[in-house]
């Protein structure tokens, strides 16, 4: 019996961890979609999108906490406890930085920058692939699909790096020191979201290598 089959044989019957991770992934998709759509029709005087981001961030905190509660209550886990912990924390980081990005966009009240929505689209696409990867990670049935989603997430992060570089060059050409400080901070937060998504992809790829 292969190591993957051994782990499947001892998985909790209720699959509580995978259920939680799927709920977390669904929340990230909803959060990133709302964020992207909010930036496409951005109004600095309408804080409804920021409030929604705060609500999603709190929901993610609750779901992440539940993962750790289940770690304390379940002796048998679908894969290594440290990997579960890192995966949960990594997914929560994505939500934290989406919320931070939204917060500073509103706090700084800088002129609309279409680059923000370019980042938010990459973030949304990354979250969609994270959901696919988590679904395919369940029971280790589709390791190749997990790897494919991870490759796409890595490619989105590379695109985000290019978007940041190009946006930074244009920003410095304005010679507006205050604008540069504010928008560069926002751009950095947005780019970090894609870094965090790549971190999660790397964790899942590592899990597949270990157990699939």
UniProtKB/TrEMBL annotation:
InterPro entries: PhoU-like_sf, Put_Phosphate_transp_reg, UPF0111_domain. Pfam families: PhoU_div. Belongs to the UPF0111 family. This is Phosphate transport regulator.
